[in-house]
């Protein structure tokens, strides 16, 4: 399969800061790819390189079969792009900026643009400088989508949009992917991303910690709770195929976030002296993100009472 985006050992060093450290990535066509990461993880840097606004220190990338370093204009003509702070000509009106941008594209750019701003209820005669933050974001999105690009690159696309518009917009991204076009977006809105993304990439301190279809990710990750009769009981070593992301003790409970744990492995625990029982639960994308980036179960988890932890939960249904 021809990937829409590939990066190979992509590295970006700024003075005193390694923004990207050897990122290898491949994005399939017809998918919504969401790049997640904390502040400063390297998302915008990655997007600026892919769109030809920044030259990487080393490594390579291809976007729509072009090299954004040597052919930035070719890439930008092919894709739609909205940055986290869209630069629009403030002195133009909403109508004028549509005319202006249409001059760079063939086809019915202008008609599509006007339909889009009409749908968003933005007055055509309003100056860009007098628009609210959300209205600016809507104009930028209308411009990016008007030539119906095969690849849409969005840096924090929903910041500034109200909840209804955010939901409609993200759902429209699913329709784009269903029609074979590709959406690459960065976001902090993890619960929103969870509803629309096909593939998740997690950047952490410039490294790609994870790149995986969302369905596989959610199927392969669980929080395993092991009830112990003594908090100091040592747990068995898990097979190498299992990735342990974090382990925390709450009284007589040990909670572990694991990837690749299979049902057969429960017996490793249940046969262990001092283990009273185990249970498992699926994780939300937000919990998975926290496990990968913070190595913890999350900041706001309730700490159970001693009486709760003493109670063994033995095998039924998803529990073992
Ligand atoms: N031009 C620059 N010069 C020096 N350092 C930079 C430059 N651009 C980015 N950085 C640094 O690179 C790192 C990654 O920044 P980047 O903007 O890519 O992060 P991000 O994941 O988009 O963050 P956020 O979610 O806060 O927007 C940060 O530590 C940032 O300070």
TrEMBL record:
Alphabetically sorted, this entry's keywords are:
ATP-binding, Nucleotide-binding
Q: Which domain of life is it from?
A: Bacteria
InterPro entries per record: AAA+_ATPase, ABC_transporter-like_ATP-bd, ABC_transporter-like_CS, P-loop_NTPase
Domain ABC transporter residue range list: 5-230
UniProt GO molecular function: ATP binding; ATP hydrolysis activity
Which CDD domains does the entry link to? ABC_DR_subfamily_A
**Know the name of this protein?**
ABC transporter ATP-binding protein YtrB
Disordered, as annotated region: 300-320
């Amino acid at each position: 399969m021809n990937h829409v985006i590939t990066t190979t050992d992509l590295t970006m060093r700024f003075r005193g800061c390694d923004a990207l450290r050897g990122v290898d990535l491949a994005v399939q066509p017809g998918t919504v790819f969401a790049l997640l990461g904390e502040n400063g993880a390297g998302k915008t840097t990655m997007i600026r390189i892919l769109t030809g606004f920044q030259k990487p220190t080393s490594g390579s990338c291809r976007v729509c079969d072009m090299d954004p370093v040597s052919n930035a204009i070719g890439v930008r003509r092919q894709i739609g792009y909205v940055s986290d702070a869209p630069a629009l000509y403030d002195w133009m009106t909403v109508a004028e900026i549509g005319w202006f941008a249409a001059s760079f594209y063939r086809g019915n750019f202008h008609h599509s643009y006007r339909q889009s701003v009409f749908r968003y209820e933005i007055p055509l005669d309003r100056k860009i400088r007098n628009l609210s933050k959300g209205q600016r974001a809507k104009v930028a999105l209308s411009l990016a989508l008007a030539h119906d690009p095969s690849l849409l690159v969005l840096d924090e696309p929903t910041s500034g949009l109200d909840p209804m518009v955010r939901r409609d917009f993200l759902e429209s991204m699913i329709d784009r992917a269903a029609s074979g076009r590709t959406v690459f977006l960065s976001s902090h809105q993890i619960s929103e991303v969870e509803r629309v993304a096909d593939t998740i990439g997690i950047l952490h301190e410039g490294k790609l910690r994870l790149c995986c279809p969302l369905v596989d990710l959610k199927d392969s990750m669980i929080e395993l709770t092991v009830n112990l009769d003594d908090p100091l009981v040592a747990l068995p070593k898990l097979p190498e195929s299992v990735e342990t992301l974090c382990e925390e003790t709450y009284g007589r409970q040990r909670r572990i976030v694991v990837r690749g744990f299979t049902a057969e492995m429960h017996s490793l625990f249940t046969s262990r002296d001092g283990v009273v029982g185990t249970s498992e639960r699926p994780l939300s994308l937000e919990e998975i993100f926290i496990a990968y980036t913070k190595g913890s179960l999350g900041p706001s988890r309730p700490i159970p009472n001693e009486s709760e932890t003493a109670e063994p939960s033995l095998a039924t249904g998803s529990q073992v």
